[in-house]
Amino acid sequence: MHWFHGTTHDFEDFDPAYIGIGNDQIGSGFYFTDSLETAEQYTAGSGRILTVDPGVENPMDPCHRMTREQIGILIMGAPEYRDTLMNWGEIDSEGYGVVLSRAVSSYEQMMPEDGEGDIVDMMNALSNDFWRGAEADFLALVVKTTGKDGLIRTVGLGGERHLVAWLPERIQVLKEDLILEVGPRP
């Protein structure tokens, strides 16, 4: 399956430094669509459309539920997580385990249930709380912890799909098409 990425920027590789920058409507990562028309909208009439193999082998479904253990690993793997954990209680007086459990429970409540909801809400909250500025590291730990390496979501009534790839080193550009803006003829 081919996926498309429309852009006005000139680059050769998908750089992890750009993860978490921009409008991450369905989470951090690199965005692709199976619709050539949608990709064209991102070229602003004069960019490029990349046809890619995003390298996603085991995508996460939006209704996926993480275990409490997985959420705990994502919290404890964050830089300076103990400081952020203080938002859920006083570690010195209540105990580390109690405060960590409370934090895990708060994210667990955000996850989809019975096919309703979206794991992206929980992942965005956890990433924003604990991993701000280190989104690429967060996604690498999500992959290591869950075995999932991206997310696919169907959008709109036409069945168009969007894919978010979390491991930029796997993305391979197969083809590049320039989109040239054509003005009115005299």
Could you describe the 3D structure shown?
- The structure is a single chain.
- By secondary structure, this protein is α+β, with helices and mostly antiparallel strands.
- The chain folds into 2 domains: 3-59 and 151-178; 68-147, no CATH class.
- 33% of the residues lie in helices and 18% in strands.
- It has helices spanning 36-41, 68-76, 81-85, 91-94, 96-108, 119-130, 135-146, and strands at residues 3-7, 30-33, 48-53, 150-155, 160-165, 172-178.
- It has a 3-stranded antiparallel beta sheet with strand order 1-3-6. A 3-stranded antiparallel beta sheet has the order 2-5-4.
- Strand 4 (150-155) and strand 5 form a beta hairpin.
- Helix 2 packs across helix 5 (96-108).
Task: Please give a quick description of this structure.
This protein has 7 helices and 6 strands; from the N terminus they run ββαβααααααβββ.
DSSP helix count? 7
Largest sheet: 3 strands, antiparallel
Assign the structural class, choosing from mainly alpha, mainly beta, alpha/beta, alpha+beta, or little secondary structure: alpha+beta
Strand order of the largest sheet: 1-3-6
For the terminal residues, how far apart are their CA atoms? 41 Å
Shape: elongated
**Mean pLDDT over the residues:** 89
Rg (CA only): 19 Å
| Poorly predicted runs of 5 or more residues | 182-186
Q: Helical amount among residues, as a percent range?
A: 25-40%
Beta strands, count: 6
